[in-house]
Amino acid sequence: MLVLLFRVQSLFHYPTRLVCRRPITPHRMVTPSSPRCEPSLPVESNCWISIWTRDRLRQGFIRHHGQMHAQPEMRLRPATPVTVRSPASPNCGADSYPSLEPCETNRPEPGSEQSGAARYLPVIAFRTRHSALSQAQRQTWERLWPEIGISVVPQTRSGERLDTDAWFGRSAPVVLEIGCGSGTATLAMAQHEPDIDVIAVEVYRRGLAQLLCAINRDQVHNIRMIHGNALYLLQHLIAPMSLTGVRVFFPDPWPKARHHKRRLLQPATVELIADRLLPGGVLHTATDHPDYAEQIAEVGDGEPLLSRADGSTQLPIATVRPTTKYETKAQHAGNIVTELIWKKRS
């Protein structure tokens, strides 16, 4: 009686169970006619369990040691041929696929309209996140975003440069902050320097919504925001020699070696930033990742248009920043924050 109950229970709980005389390799195709395995139920039976088992066997699936496997030829898809152009190839001009490194064969002059554009791979230096806005944030967004914020969509680019004088309603030095997060440092530094216009760039909508609510609460008038990719913004919307400063605080370090290509501050990106800075402009960076700090220092020192600033260097913008929530967590974890500042050569 117990044996019969066990057999009935096994039929309902393990409809694809096979009784194999010898072990089966995970990628071996098993068919009902295979002499090595016998289905526990007759395959040609009218029982719904047998029909389901037969269909699974025909699709190439078996249950082996508690796991479902399929034959390799059913799981793999044919690779799509891809043509890769080397950055040093003679046809790597503006009509070719953009490369991460500058093209030496068709390198535009520094400060020209083509400098820094259509020569860089669109690096994805941020992670995808989706978070909903609160009701108050949505209401503030709908009311204030059309006035002090824009969303950059690469597919709808018009080719026109950003007119900061018309956007801010005055002519003043402009500082671009890449990755403002929730805007703690952005708001404090903008309040400390009311004569400087700040453009905060962020890909996460919720962080911009938090900054937007803080701007509305404190009535700050020298901050504008852009929702989009900062690298695309630098390439197509920011004119050469138009920025007084660029701030990059705690960019994503992408610690894994295979992800280092996603880091924002690459040689080509630093060259692009230097091209957009005015003579005497400032590149201010901060990170709590030691390996990333070494890379940033090497890349910044290797850019011929930039020189490292020290305590005696006169800078056009302030470099004193508040301690953010992220930096506080990094300090509690024992991480050392490294700040690096460069000034563009005259």
TrEMBL record:
GO cellular component terms, semicolon-separated: tRNA methyltransferase complex
Classification via PROSITE patterns: SAM_MT_TRMB
Keywords on record: Methyltransferase, S-adenosyl-L-methionine, Transferase, tRNA processing
Start and end residues of each stretch annotated as Disordered: 81-115
InterPro entries the UniProt entry points to: SAM-dependent_MTases_sf, tRNA_(Gua-N-7)_MeTrfase_Trmb, tRNA_methyltr_TrmB_bact
Catalytic activity field: guanosine(46) in tRNA + S-adenosyl-L-methionine = N(7)-methylguanosine(46) in tRNA + S-adenosyl-L-homocysteine
Class in the EC hierarchy, top level: transferase
Ligand binding (S-adenosyl-L-methionine): 177, 202, 229, 252
GO molecular function, one term: tRNA (guanine(46)-N7)-methyltransferase activity
Pathway(s) served: tRNA modification; N(7)-methylguanine-tRNA biosynthesis
Name the record gives this protein: tRNA (guanine-N(7)-)-methyltransferase
EC number: 2.1.1.33
UniProt similarity note: Belongs to the class I-like SAM-binding methyltransferase superfamily. TrmB family.
NCBIfam families membership: tRNA (guanosine(46)-N7)-methyltransferase TrmB
Binding site for substrate: 256, 288, 324-327
Function in brief: Catalyzes the formation of N(7)-methylguanine at position 46 (m7G46) in tRNA.
Keyword Cell inner membrane appears in the UniProt entry: no
